[in-house]
Design brief:
With 88 residues, the chain is of the alpha/beta class. The protein has one domain. Strands 2-1-3 form a 3-stranded parallel beta sheet. The protein is globular, with a radius of gyration of 13 Å. This is Thioesterase domain-containing protein. Pfam families: Thioesterase. InterPro entries: AB_hydrolase_fold, TEII, Thioesterase. Belongs to the thioesterase family.
Length: 88
């Protein structure tokens, strides 16, 4: 079971926003990037305009990844805000 880095990008970002960082992450770490609706692979979904909705969406995505093993949450810009709110 690998340790995980779970990343949340900046406002408007998606999983591709971390490509330049991800290629430098050691292979022993699993890099997982969560995306909000309206971005990246979820482009066809309606955008969320309330922080509470974004946190709920991210928590639903996050839970399967944190049931086992060690992990850290990494947020960039708005991702940092959402990581902090998700941890409450």
């Amino acid at each position: 079971m690998n340790n995980k880095v779970i990343a949340l990008p900046f406002a408007g970002g998606n999983k591709y926003s971390f490509n330049s960082i991800e290629k430098h992450v050691p292979k022993k770490l699993d890099w997982i990037t969560l995306e909000l609706p309206g971005r990246g692979n979820r482009f066809k979904e309606s955008l969320l305009d309330k922080v509470e909705q974004m946190v709920d969406d991210l928590l639903n995505q996050l839970m399967p990844h944190i049931k086992e093993g060690n992990y850290i949450l990494y947020g960039h810009s708005m991702g940092t805000l959402l990581v902090n709110l998700s941890a409450l």
